[in-house]
Amino acid sequence: MSKTDTKRPTRPWGALVGACVIAALLIVWAMQGSLSGAGVPVGRAATIAVGMTLQAIPFLLLGVFVAELIEAFVSPAFIARVFPTNPLASVLTALVAAFALPVCDCSAVPIFRSLLRKGVPLSAATTLMLASPAINPLVIASTLYAFGSWSLVAARVGASVVVALCVGLSMLIAPPTALREEGRPGADHGRDACCCEDGCELPDRSVSGVLAATGRSFGRILPFLLGGVVASTMAQVAWPVSSLLSGLPAVGALALMMGAGFALSLCSSSDAVIARSLASLAPTGALMGFMVYGPMMDVKNVALLASQFRGAFVARLFVTVTVVAAVVVGGAWWMGVLS
């Protein structure tokens, strides 16, 4: 009997755990009246968590589905034609693609992983992952709707492009030694990628095959997303941003709003509306930090990245994005571009 025949079937434990957590959140949300009456903020926390989960899951599912479509139907030869061999040209191509890819930040991580497996350079894939949730048409439209200012939209897009480009080029100048742990599900030679002893398996290009692969990937990632939702909910319940903004200097306001963007883990297509609600409390430069940094790096994104990549790579990406975003937004604010 061959190795393939004796291989144990994949168990949908991730999807099962995720479904149980979502069911528990819905039950607590339904009981929020009695819980609030007892003076316990569990009801409010459940409301926030349910809303964030229901907002994130469709985009995550879409991202996983698109990633599996890329895996099944987009050949490495096609990717090589789209992304030039010149590293700098490849990064610029990723920026152009980011403008046309209407994805939320939840979708960006699965697509990033799929592009890497197809041979897209890390610098270009990183640029696309960071830029696409921040400069796509949906984000541009929502920002214009919230603020009614094309100059502010241009400032958000421009700052996001500079940050994504700088971080992407940093991966080109000093590439990480490794991205994935050997043997981890989703690694380059993990059980879902290929069977190295018998040669790489071709992906199932049928509708049922793509849907099955989508379900498996979604089930693996869902618990990490829910972990990010729980952490973000706790931050929102215990950390009233509006009350902390009063009297802060510019540096403190920028740091606080970037921290809020990380902790609140809002969908990038709706974060401009939240930023607009804080416009009377925070200066424009601090709001820009919220809208530039949040779509690129937040709690649930870190959780999704940690489910697929080495901790050292995730830590490096987090630190690089944070420092570059602070320097770019803070510098533009200091020069009066964001006043």
Descriptive overview:
The chain is built from 17 helices and no strands. The chain is mainly α and 339 residues long. It has one domain. The longest helix has 32 residues, at 42-73. Mean pLDDT is 76; it is low at 1-10 and 183-201.
Question: Which tags fit this structure?
Answer:
17 helices; 73% helix; 0% strand
List the helices and strands and how they pair.
Layout: H1 3-6, H2 13-30, H3 32-37, H4 42-73, H5 76-82, H6 87-100, H7 105-117, H8 122-135, H9 137-147, H10 150-173, H11 207-238, H12 241-245, H13 250-264, H14 271-277, H15 284-296, H16 299-306, H17 311-334
Helix pairs in contact: 2-4, 2-11, 4-7, 4-11, 6-8, 6-10, 7-8, 7-16, 8-10, 8-15, 9-10, 9-14, 10-15, 10-17, 11-16, 13-15, 14-15, 15-17
Sheet-strand content, in percent, reads under 5%
Distance separating the two termini: 70 Å
The sequence of SSEs as H and E is HHHHHHHHHHHHHHHHH
- The number of distinct β-strands equals 0
What is the global morphology?
globular
- If you average the pLDDT, what whole number results? 76
Radius of gyration: 21 Å
Poorly predicted regions: 1-10, 183-201
Query: How many domains in all?
Result: 1
Q: What is the tally of helical segments?
A: 17
Secondary structure class reads mainly alpha
Summarize the structure.
The chain has 339 residues and is mainly alpha-helical. The chain contains 17 helices and no strands.
